[in-house]
Amino acid sequence: MSSDGVQQENVQSLDKESEVEEAAPFNVPFYTECSEAAQAELINQCEGQFAQLEMLQNQIIFAEPDPDESTQELSVNRLTAVAAELKQWQTMQPELLSPNSEVLLAVGAEELQKLNSQLELVFSCSQAKRDKLRESLKREQKWLEEKKEVFRAATEHVANQRLENERLSENRVLRDTKKKIQKMKDYQDRLMETLADILEEHFPLPTMETSVNKKKKNIPQDLNQDLLSLNEILELLMNKTLDTPHDPYVRIDETFWPPYTEMLLRYGIALRHPEDCFKIRLEAFY
Protein backbone atom coordinates (compact mmCIF):
# COMPACT_ATOMS: atom_id res chain seq x y z
CA MET A 1 0.00 0.00 0.00
CA SER A 2 1.35 3.46 -0.89
CA SER A 3 2.03 6.26 1.58
CA ASP A 4 -0.93 8.28 0.17
CA GLY A 5 -3.35 5.42 1.00
CA VAL A 6 -1.97 5.13 4.52
CA GLN A 7 -2.33 8.84 5.11
CA GLN A 8 -5.91 8.84 3.81
CA GLU A 9 -6.79 5.96 6.13
CA ASN A 10 -5.23 7.84 9.06
CA VAL A 11 -7.27 10.94 8.24
CA GLN A 12 -10.48 8.90 7.99
CA SER A 13 -9.80 7.13 11.29
CA LEU A 14 -9.13 10.46 13.03
CA ASP A 15 -12.37 11.88 11.66
CA LYS A 16 -14.33 8.85 12.82
CA GLU A 17 -12.81 9.06 16.30
CA SER A 18 -13.64 12.74 16.52
CA GLU A 19 -17.26 12.05 15.49
CA VAL A 20 -17.60 9.31 18.12
CA GLU A 21 -16.04 11.47 20.80
CA GLU A 22 -18.22 14.46 19.98
CA ALA A 23 -21.36 12.28 20.01
CA ALA A 24 -20.61 10.73 23.44
CA PRO A 25 -22.65 12.37 26.25
CA PHE A 26 -20.70 13.14 29.39
CA ASN A 27 -23.01 15.43 31.33
CA VAL A 28 -25.06 12.76 33.14
CA PRO A 29 -27.17 14.06 36.04
CA PHE A 30 -26.62 12.25 39.32
CA TYR A 31 -28.90 12.43 42.38
CA THR A 32 -26.71 12.22 45.48
CA GLU A 33 -29.18 13.47 48.12
CA CYS A 34 -30.34 10.96 50.75
CA SER A 35 -33.18 11.06 53.23
CA GLU A 36 -32.58 11.79 56.92
CA ALA A 37 -33.39 8.22 57.85
CA ALA A 38 -30.75 6.87 55.40
CA GLN A 39 -28.18 9.34 56.70
CA ALA A 40 -28.94 8.37 60.33
CA GLU A 41 -28.64 4.66 59.45
CA LEU A 42 -25.31 5.27 57.69
CA ILE A 43 -24.01 7.26 60.67
CA ASN A 44 -24.99 4.43 63.06
CA GLN A 45 -23.14 1.93 60.88
CA CYS A 46 -20.05 4.15 60.83
CA GLU A 47 -20.13 4.48 64.61
CA GLY A 48 -20.39 0.72 64.98
CA GLN A 49 -17.40 0.25 62.64
CA PHE A 50 -15.38 2.82 64.56
CA ALA A 51 -16.21 1.09 67.87
CA GLN A 52 -15.08 -2.24 66.44
CA LEU A 53 -11.91 -0.58 65.14
CA GLU A 54 -11.12 0.88 68.58
CA MET A 55 -11.62 -2.54 70.15
CA LEU A 56 -9.25 -4.15 67.68
CA GLN A 57 -6.72 -1.41 68.23
CA ASN A 58 -6.84 -1.95 72.00
CA GLN A 59 -6.36 -5.68 71.50
CA ILE A 60 -3.32 -4.99 69.32
CA ILE A 61 -1.87 -2.67 71.97
CA PHE A 62 -2.41 -5.23 74.75
CA ALA A 63 -0.96 -7.94 72.53
CA GLU A 64 2.34 -6.11 72.12
CA PRO A 65 5.23 -8.59 72.39
CA ASP A 66 7.53 -8.67 75.36
CA PRO A 67 10.59 -6.48 74.74
CA ASP A 68 12.71 -9.28 76.13
CA GLU A 69 11.91 -11.46 73.12
CA SER A 70 14.53 -11.69 70.43
CA THR A 71 14.26 -9.93 67.09
CA GLN A 72 14.10 -13.25 65.23
CA GLU A 73 11.10 -14.40 67.25
CA LEU A 74 9.39 -11.06 66.62
CA SER A 75 9.93 -11.43 62.88
CA VAL A 76 8.57 -14.98 62.91
CA ASN A 77 5.49 -13.92 64.88
CA ARG A 78 4.83 -10.99 62.54
CA LEU A 79 5.23 -13.21 59.49
CA THR A 80 2.76 -15.72 60.99
CA ALA A 81 0.29 -12.94 61.75
CA VAL A 82 0.56 -11.47 58.25
CA ALA A 83 0.07 -14.92 56.67
CA ALA A 84 -3.01 -15.55 58.83
CA GLU A 85 -4.42 -12.14 57.92
CA LEU A 86 -3.80 -12.77 54.23
CA LYS A 87 -5.57 -16.12 54.43
CA GLN A 88 -8.50 -14.50 56.21
CA TRP A 89 -8.79 -11.77 53.57
CA GLN A 90 -8.66 -14.37 50.79
CA THR A 91 -11.52 -16.37 52.34
CA MET A 92 -13.59 -13.30 53.25
CA GLN A 93 -16.59 -12.51 51.05
CA PRO A 94 -17.10 -8.85 50.12
CA GLU A 95 -20.00 -7.18 51.91
CA LEU A 96 -22.13 -4.26 50.84
CA LEU A 97 -21.40 -0.90 52.30
CA SER A 98 -25.00 -0.61 53.47
CA PRO A 99 -28.15 -2.54 52.74
CA ASN A 100 -29.99 0.75 52.24
CA SER A 101 -30.61 1.43 48.51
CA GLU A 102 -30.51 5.21 48.98
CA VAL A 103 -27.03 5.05 50.44
CA LEU A 104 -25.84 2.73 47.67
CA LEU A 105 -27.34 5.08 45.07
CA ALA A 106 -25.61 8.09 46.57
CA VAL A 107 -22.26 6.30 46.77
CA GLY A 108 -22.66 5.00 43.20
CA ALA A 109 -23.56 8.48 41.98
CA GLU A 110 -20.47 9.92 43.64
CA GLU A 111 -18.27 7.24 42.09
CA LEU A 112 -19.86 7.87 38.72
CA GLN A 113 -19.18 11.59 39.07
CA LYS A 114 -15.53 10.85 39.84
CA LEU A 115 -15.39 8.48 36.88
CA ASN A 116 -17.09 11.09 34.72
CA SER A 117 -14.51 13.73 35.65
CA GLN A 118 -11.70 11.29 34.91
CA LEU A 119 -13.25 10.41 31.54
CA GLU A 120 -13.64 14.09 30.73
CA LEU A 121 -9.96 14.57 31.50
CA VAL A 122 -9.09 11.60 29.28
CA PHE A 123 -11.39 13.00 26.58
CA SER A 124 -9.70 16.41 26.66
CA CYS A 125 -6.29 14.71 26.50
CA SER A 126 -7.40 12.57 23.56
CA GLN A 127 -8.76 15.65 21.79
CA ALA A 128 -5.46 17.47 22.29
CA LYS A 129 -3.59 14.41 21.05
CA ARG A 130 -5.95 14.14 18.05
CA ASP A 131 -5.38 17.81 17.16
CA LYS A 132 -1.64 17.32 17.51
CA LEU A 133 -1.79 14.25 15.27
CA ARG A 134 -3.81 16.19 12.69
CA GLU A 135 -1.22 18.96 12.65
CA SER A 136 1.55 16.39 12.39
CA LEU A 137 -0.32 14.68 9.56
CA LYS A 138 -0.69 17.97 7.69
CA ARG A 139 3.02 18.66 8.10
CA GLU A 140 3.84 15.16 6.87
CA GLN A 141 1.54 15.59 3.87
CA LYS A 142 3.13 18.91 3.05
CA TRP A 143 6.60 17.40 3.45
CA LEU A 144 5.56 14.49 1.19
CA GLU A 145 4.30 16.86 -1.50
CA GLU A 146 7.56 18.81 -1.34
CA LYS A 147 9.57 15.61 -1.63
CA LYS A 148 7.44 14.53 -4.59
CA GLU A 149 8.11 17.84 -6.30
CA VAL A 150 11.84 17.50 -5.61
CA PHE A 151 11.82 13.92 -6.90
CA ARG A 152 9.91 14.97 -10.02
CA ALA A 153 12.32 17.83 -10.67
CA ALA A 154 15.32 15.54 -10.07
CA THR A 155 13.89 12.95 -12.47
CA GLU A 156 13.38 15.56 -15.17
CA HIS A 157 16.87 16.92 -14.58
CA VAL A 158 18.39 13.44 -14.87
CA ALA A 159 16.46 12.79 -18.10
CA ASN A 160 17.57 16.13 -19.54
CA GLN A 161 21.16 15.48 -18.52
CA ARG A 162 21.02 12.04 -20.13
CA LEU A 163 19.74 13.51 -23.39
CA GLU A 164 22.32 16.26 -23.18
CA ASN A 165 25.10 13.73 -22.60
CA GLU A 166 23.94 11.65 -25.55
CA ARG A 167 23.81 14.71 -27.76
CA LEU A 168 27.22 15.87 -26.52
CA SER A 169 28.65 12.40 -27.07
CA GLU A 170 27.39 12.37 -30.67
CA ASN A 171 28.76 15.86 -31.25
CA ARG A 172 32.04 14.86 -29.61
CA VAL A 173 32.37 11.80 -31.84
CA LEU A 174 31.59 13.87 -34.91
CA ARG A 175 34.03 16.56 -33.82
CA ASP A 176 36.75 14.00 -33.08
CA THR A 177 36.18 12.36 -36.47
CA LYS A 178 36.46 15.71 -38.20
CA LYS A 179 39.67 16.42 -36.31
CA LYS A 180 41.12 13.06 -37.32
CA ILE A 181 40.14 13.58 -40.94
CA GLN A 182 41.68 17.05 -40.91
CA LYS A 183 44.80 15.66 -39.25
CA MET A 184 45.09 12.97 -41.94
CA LYS A 185 44.61 15.59 -44.64
CA ASP A 186 47.33 17.76 -43.11
CA TYR A 187 49.61 14.73 -42.81
CA GLN A 188 48.93 13.84 -46.45
CA ASP A 189 49.65 17.40 -47.55
CA ARG A 190 52.95 17.36 -45.65
CA LEU A 191 53.85 14.01 -47.20
CA MET A 192 53.02 15.29 -50.67
CA GLU A 193 55.04 18.44 -50.09
CA THR A 194 57.99 16.40 -48.81
CA LEU A 195 57.71 14.01 -51.74
CA ALA A 196 57.55 16.94 -54.16
CA ASP A 197 60.67 18.50 -52.61
CA ILE A 198 62.58 15.21 -52.78
CA LEU A 199 61.54 14.54 -56.36
CA GLU A 200 62.30 18.10 -57.41
CA GLU A 201 65.74 17.88 -55.86
CA HIS A 202 66.77 14.40 -57.02
CA PHE A 203 64.66 13.94 -60.18
CA PRO A 204 64.52 17.27 -61.99
CA LEU A 205 63.13 17.68 -65.50
CA PRO A 206 65.65 17.67 -68.32
CA THR A 207 66.95 21.14 -69.29
CA MET A 208 68.63 22.60 -72.32
CA GLU A 209 72.03 22.03 -70.69
CA THR A 210 71.51 18.28 -70.41
CA SER A 211 70.23 18.31 -73.98
CA VAL A 212 73.39 20.06 -75.24
CA ASN A 213 75.63 17.57 -73.37
CA LYS A 214 73.83 14.66 -74.99
CA LYS A 215 74.18 16.26 -78.46
CA LYS A 216 77.93 16.43 -77.89
CA LYS A 217 77.80 12.67 -77.43
CA ASN A 218 76.07 12.40 -80.81
CA ILE A 219 72.76 11.32 -79.19
CA PRO A 220 69.83 13.02 -80.83
CA GLN A 221 67.48 14.48 -78.19
CA ASP A 222 64.25 16.43 -78.71
CA LEU A 223 63.28 18.39 -75.64
CA ASN A 224 59.56 18.92 -75.06
CA GLN A 225 58.70 22.00 -73.05
CA ASP A 226 55.43 20.42 -71.82
CA LEU A 227 57.03 17.49 -70.02
CA LEU A 228 55.51 16.43 -66.72
CA SER A 229 57.71 16.22 -63.67
CA LEU A 230 58.01 12.94 -61.79
CA ASN A 231 55.92 14.42 -58.99
CA GLU A 232 53.13 15.31 -61.43
CA ILE A 233 53.23 11.84 -62.97
CA LEU A 234 52.90 10.16 -59.56
CA GLU A 235 50.10 12.55 -58.57
CA LEU A 236 48.29 11.80 -61.83
CA LEU A 237 48.58 8.04 -61.21
CA MET A 238 47.37 8.34 -57.60
CA ASN A 239 44.40 10.54 -58.50
CA LYS A 240 43.41 8.14 -61.27
CA THR A 241 43.55 5.20 -58.83
CA LEU A 242 41.40 7.04 -56.28
CA ASP A 243 38.91 8.54 -58.73
CA THR A 244 38.32 5.49 -60.95
CA PRO A 245 39.56 2.38 -59.11
CA HIS A 246 37.83 0.18 -61.72
CA ASP A 247 39.97 1.79 -64.49
CA PRO A 248 43.23 3.05 -62.89
CA TYR A 249 45.28 3.13 -66.13
CA VAL A 250 46.71 6.36 -67.55
CA ARG A 251 47.67 6.68 -71.23
CA ILE A 252 51.29 7.60 -71.90
CA ASP A 253 51.70 10.56 -74.25
CA GLU A 254 54.47 12.94 -75.26
CA THR A 255 54.32 14.73 -71.88
CA PHE A 256 55.73 11.64 -70.11
CA TRP A 257 59.50 11.70 -70.20
CA PRO A 258 60.49 8.09 -71.16
CA PRO A 259 63.29 7.74 -68.54
CA TYR A 260 60.78 8.52 -65.78
CA THR A 261 58.26 6.03 -67.13
CA GLU A 262 60.95 3.37 -67.48
CA MET A 263 62.15 3.98 -63.94
CA LEU A 264 58.65 3.63 -62.52
CA LEU A 265 58.09 0.39 -64.38
CA ARG A 266 61.51 -1.05 -63.54
CA TYR A 267 61.24 -0.41 -59.79
CA GLY A 268 57.69 -1.77 -59.53
CA ILE A 269 56.06 1.57 -58.76
CA ALA A 270 53.88 1.40 -61.87
CA LEU A 271 52.57 -1.48 -64.00
CA ARG A 272 51.92 -1.61 -67.73
CA HIS A 273 48.55 -2.61 -69.14
CA PRO A 274 48.64 -6.30 -70.21
CA GLU A 275 46.97 -5.52 -73.56
CA ASP A 276 47.99 -1.91 -74.21
CA CYS A 277 51.63 -1.00 -73.71
CA PHE A 278 50.83 2.73 -73.81
CA LYS A 279 48.87 2.53 -70.56
CA ILE A 280 50.27 2.32 -67.05
CA ARG A 281 48.81 2.35 -63.56
CA LEU A 282 50.05 2.69 -60.01
CA GLU A 283 51.01 -0.51 -58.23
CA ALA A 284 48.47 -1.61 -55.59
CA PHE A 285 50.53 -1.33 -52.39
CA TYR A 286 47.57 -2.04 -50.08
From TrEMBL:
GO terms for biological process: kinetochore assembly; mitotic sister chromatid segregation. The keyword Nucleus applies. InterPro entries: Centromere_CenpK. It comes from the Eukaryota. One of its GO terms (cellular component) is nucleus. Residues 1-20 are annotated as: Disordered. Residues 1-13 have a biased composition (Polar residues). It is found in: Chromosome, Centromere; Nucleus. Keywords: Centromere, Chromosome, Coiled coil, Nucleus. Belongs to the CENP-K/MCM22 family. This is Centromere protein K.
